[in-house]
Design brief:
The structure is a homodimer.
Chain A (H helix, E strand, L loop, with lengths): L21 H9 L12 H17 L6 E5 L2 H15 L6 E5 L5 H9 L2 E5 L9 H7 L4 E7 L11 H11 L2 E5 L23 E3 L13 E5 L2 H5 L3 E2 L7 E2 L8 H14 L2 H23 L3 E3 L5 E5 L2 H9 L5 E2 L5 E4 L6 H20 L1
Parallel strand pairs in A: 2-3, 2-4, 4-5, 5-6
Antiparallel strand pairs in A: 1-7, 6-7, 8-9, 10-11, 11-13, 12-13
Helix pairs in contact in A: 1-8, 2-8, 3-4
């Protein structure tokens, strides 16, 4: 078999994953053969998971967090919907969310037999609490907002969404899978201290620079975790609240290590660099006459002709589109001014060529 | 933070996880920063996943397999139940399985709103197709058997279970999460060639010696995968059939590497060594007067007094119990005659001490 090589990160501009921090990589390699899903056998990695949950609590303003290191944001979002379904007593439960929620909510709804009611967003791509209010009723078990949307990096008005949850007696979930590691350094109101939210998704393996798989599911109350637990015969721990069984100790150990290394100062520096980079890229695209969605967080969307987008992909740039068709560039830690300059040079080259034909 | 260290495998006797093969570890470390959940961006690891699925097809007698590398056996079992629920048209769907199924079936049933009907097993801890037949009806969407049970390593009569599936017009699933990498070297009838089964769980990260997370979900028909797919806006691939979103490229690459290295000769040698080891341990426990469940596959269960079990755990042995209370030792690749001799020496020492008091 010819030896396969991983992709180069230099050309990856659309992923919400990145190169792990060196401390994360070292810990992942060292704990590769551990399973936090069996905490009585793999004790030291189970302790690292408890440390990670505590550190994530600090990140999101929750003093006594319940939760665990999930396989990723999809699992954490599924678990939020599942906990709300199980804690609620609706015969035909529904979840109300902005249409900007990650597609894992569609997956969760299909999986769990819950109706997903999506409200239109406002002109700035943010959740509109009034539109969400119109969809909520006595069978609403969860209202959700996003703190750092996948397509535009927008932060929904979380306090208003939490107020809606209180009004209709539903749990409140915030998906900060991507945004959670930059939002602490902004003025946004998005976390457990800012609003009466019940659960949160916050992924170390995105902007937290842990190794995949290291997502995060956090809950304010123990009852939320209890609503997810199943019994575990033949394991020497009595029950399991996770969606998966065997789990990656590499992900857990890497998250513990990188949080210890970077929180908070290192993450602040990272945020400042990436936000500046996004602003620079947005200005560069704007100067070239493209319509740009201004970057609230380090994510830039801009409207490019389809043919130009395709030509850039053919040159090897790993870029993707929003549902509305805009180019979408995520300024992750591996993205540099240099790589973006190379991208812009190709873009200019292709435009010049197209103008000459 | 004091540097944490992973557990030593020398004392781990109850886990179905193990140390990855060196080829698996090398590949996992090299592909740590890849995400097969985004195949258009992370192309080389997506190709490794296709190779892995093809190799697993070879292992389980399926020429044109559909499927993917899952987070583990729990995900694969959930997906089997989900696909059956979605492909069936029962208003109140149920799944019929022996009571020996892994607890992930309970998780799947709770998650998916499906009734789990468990049939008693026979005196040898194997599924009883007649008892299963009594539980099946027109709302049965799936019948399941286990090829290598978690507690006793038993192989259910898969052809008879498949016949029941055909009779009641239900899909047929085989959970070979643990057994799949030893069964090819036995006379058991358990795979896609032996019976009309629809889906299978077979985990490279157990006896396949891949790195966690590398489970396997395989299906005979494309329609089964289609029944799991959701649309994926903003990814440059149209849909996603996996339960999770971002996935571990380390697990995928490690599975591809170790299958290339060990299938079939290396796995055959491993099976022969582990089966011989299990027989030796069973004889040693029997000679000491304990009631032993004979090892059909490399897993030994034996009835020990509760106090002796607890004392062995206190000496650092990572052992676990069946639901019926028997000691359960899984002869995984990291388990050696030497480590088991150490365990028996501690056992003899503790019995001697207890007889003196």
């Amino acid at each position: 078999m010819q030896r396969a090589e991983p992709q180069e990160f230099r050309t990856v501009l659309s992923s919400m994953c990145t190169e792990p921090h060196p401390a994360a990589r070292e810990a992942a390699e060292r704990f590769l053969a551990t399973n936090p899903g069996d905490p009585a056998t793999y004790r030291s990695v189970a302790e690292l998971e408890a440390q990670t949950v505590a550190a994530l609590g600090d990140l999101v303003g929750l003093a006594d967090p319940r939760g665990y290191v999930a396989s990723g944001g999809t699992e954490a979002n599924i678990q939020a919907v599942r906990a709300a379904r199980n804690r609620g007593d609706a015969a035909a439960p529904n979840v109300v969310a902005p249409e900007s929620v990650h597609f894992s909510f569609h997956k969760a709804a299909e999986l769990l037999g819950v109706e997903l009611r999506l409200a239109p967003v406002d002109d700035e791509h943010r959740a509109d609490p009034a539109a969400m209010r119109n969809l909520a009723d006595e069978d609403t078990v969860l209202v959700a907002g996003v703190a750092g949307t996948t397509e535009y990096g927008r932060v929904d008005p979380i306090p208003e969404i939490a107020a809606l949850g209180a009004e209709v007696d539903a749990l409140v979930h915030v998906d900060a899978a991507w945004g959670g590691f930059v939002l602490p350094f902004t003025d946004h109101e998005w976390n457990f201290e800012h609003a009466a939210i019940d659960t949160m998704t916050v992924d170390p393996h995105k902007l937290g620079r842990a190794a995949i798989p290291a997502g995060g599911f956090l809950a304010r109350e123990r009852a939320t975790l209890d609503a997810l637990a199943v019994e575990t015969p033949y394991l020497e721990s009595p029950e399991q609240a996770t969606l998966t069984g065997t789990r990656s100790g590499a992900g857990v150990a890497s998250a513990a290590a990188v949080l210890d290394e970077l929180w908070p100062g290192g993450y602040r520096e990272q945020y400042e660099r990436l936000q500046e980079l996004a602003g620079w890229l947005a200005a560069a695209l704007d100067a070239r006459g493209f319509e740009v969605v201004s970057p609230e967080l380090p994510l830039v969307a801009a409207r490019l002709p389809e043919s130009l987008f395709e030509a850039l992909r053919e040159r090897g740039w790993r870029i993707s589109r929003t549902a509305a068709g805009e180019l979408r560039i995520v300024c992750m830690p591996h993205v540099t001014r240099e790589s973006l300059a190379g991208f812009l040079a190709d873009l200019d080259d292709l435009r010049g060529a197209s103008e000459q034909t």
